[in-house]
């Protein structure tokens, strides 16, 4: 079973990335983004694709322009995650055969993202919308729309989000912080995977 979790490795370096990624995959998290505002992010993405591209979907977060989409594609990434809804970024992503997960906060942004071809929606910041905000938005979203809550979603409230209509989650600092050891990341990942699995039952 592929769990609906995206690991957000903000701040990771190319030297750290392989061991952290291996720990996450071993724990059961197989969708991994390296935000482009991390040090030498394209280098990290290329290394992870080379080492683990057959075991996980590797891509980038904080993608803000079509030029950055091209950079990620050149590194072999298959996933583009943004904090905002930019139809040009979504269109460019899909034209290159990659997954597009733009950030949305309003019904207007959600509909614009879907119209542009987004594979799923990143509700961000989740902590501001809350499960009640997602539940209200679900009433107007097309059936089958995938929505991941990012920011403010974690083991303590996975169940609340799922009840409100969340399909999955993006997990950042609760999973990884710069300088963290692979063992620490593995322990956090194991706890998050267990909590998500339990909440989905």
Mean pLDDT across all residues, rounded? 97
State the low-pLDDT regions, or none.
none
Instruction: Indicate the structural class.
Output: alpha/beta
CATH homologous superfamily title: Aldolase class I
Task: Characterise the protein shown here.
Pathway: Carbohydrate acid metabolism. Homotrimer. One of its GO terms (molecular function) is lyase activity. This protein has helices at 17-27, 41-52, 66-74, 87-95, 107-116, 126-138, 158-164, 182-200, and strands at residues 5-8, 31-35, 57-61, 79-81, 99-101, 103-104, 121-123, 147-150, 168-171. It has 201 residues and is of the alpha/beta class. β8 (147-150), α7 (158-164) and β9 form a beta-alpha-beta unit. α1 (17-27) runs parallel beside α8 (182-200), α4 (87-95) packs parallel to α5 and α6 (126-138) packs parallel to α7. The mean pLDDT is 97.
List keywords for this structure.
201 residues; alpha/beta; TIM Barrel; 9-stranded parallel β-sheet; 8 helices; 45% helix
Summarize the SSE layout with pairings:
Blueprint: E1 5-8, H1 17-27, E2 31-35, H2 41-52, E3 57-61, H3 66-74, E4 79-81, H4 87-95, E5 99-101, E6 103-104, H5 107-116, E7 121-123, H6 126-138, E8 147-150, H7 158-164, E9 168-171, H8 182-200
Parallel strand pairs: 1-2, 1-9, 2-3, 3-4, 4-5, 6-7, 7-8, 8-9
Helix pairs in contact: 1-2, 1-8, 4-5, 6-7
């Amino acid at each position: 079973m592929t769990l609906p979790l995206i690991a957000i490795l903000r701040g990771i370096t190319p030297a750290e990335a392989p061991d952290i990624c291996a720990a996450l995959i071993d724990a059961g998290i197989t969708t991994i983004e390296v935000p482009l505002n991390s040090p030498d992010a394209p280098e990290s993405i290329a290394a992870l694709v080379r080492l683990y591209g057959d075991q996980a979907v590797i891509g980038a977060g904080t993608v803000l322009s079509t030029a950055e989409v091209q950079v990620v594609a050149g590194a072999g990434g298959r996933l583009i995650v943004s904090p905002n809804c930019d139809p040009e970024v979504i269109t460019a992503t899909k034209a290159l055969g990659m997954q597009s997960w733009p950030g949305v906060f309003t019904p207007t942004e959600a509909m614009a993202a879907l119209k542009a071809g987004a594979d799923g929606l990143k509700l961000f910041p989740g902590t501001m919308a809350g499960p009640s905000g997602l539940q209200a938005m679900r009433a107007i979203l097309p059936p089958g729309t995938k929505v991941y809550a990012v920011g403010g979603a974690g083991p303590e409230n996975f169940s609340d989000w799922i009840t409100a209509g969340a399909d999955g989650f993006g997990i950042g600092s609760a999973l990884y912080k710069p300088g963290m050891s692979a063992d620490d990341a593995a322990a956090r990942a194991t706890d998050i995977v267990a909590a998500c699995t339990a909440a989905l039952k």
